[in-house]
Amino acid sequence: MRSLNLFLLLIICACALLLTFIALPTFGHRPLAHWALNVGIWVSALMTSLLYLGAWLIAPATDQKSQVVILSTYLPTLLIGMLTGAVWGAVGHVMQTEGLDLKSAVVRAGSLIYIGYLLVLSITISTALYLTRVRKRHAAQTAQLY
Question: What tens digit of pLDDT does each residue of 43-61 get?
Fold first, then answer.
């Protein structure tokens, strides 16, 4: 299960990084809304995956329940992060159609962005705290055996 989680995290990280590099240069051919949508989705997926890679490193290697917790919280968190990243497309659309600057456009969609990323961070931090507690408990049990 641990190797499955690592494989899944690394594949999604690699794909998100590749798609971010593809989406970043615009060369003036893409509308701002499409560019912001693509970059928002893939950067959010990349950051969520990197956070969960850190959580994977915290988890004890022999505890299967920790691996299930990582997988069961990673997938919804990834989805929430990608949907929140897609809101940046709405910000780009508002900037383009109404001629607003970034600050004014973010004010219009800011609550969705803040709530989405706050939800992603709270789930990730809760998972990391749980994994830290399990790791400490596992280390204490191992120390008692020796």
Answer: 999 999 999 999 999 998 8
- Whole-number Å distance between alpha carbons of 113 and 124: 16
- Residue type present at position 132: T
Q: To 10 degrees, what angle do helices 32-58 and 2-23 make?
A: 160
Contact yes or no for 9/74 (Cβ under 8 A): yes
Dihedral over Cα of 66, 51, 37, 105: its sign? positive
Q: What's the domain range around 65? A: 2-145
Task: Identify the three-state secondary structure at position 2.
Answer: helix
Instruction: Locate the DSSP E strands across the chain.
Output: none
Query: How far is the C-alpha of 43 from the C-alpha of 6, rounded, in Å?
Result: 19
- C-alpha to C-alpha distance for 39 and 43, rounded to whole angstroms: 6
How many folded domains does the chain comprise?
1
Q: Give the pLDDT confidence of 114-142 residue by residue, as tens digits.
A: 999 999 999 999 999 999 999 999 888 87
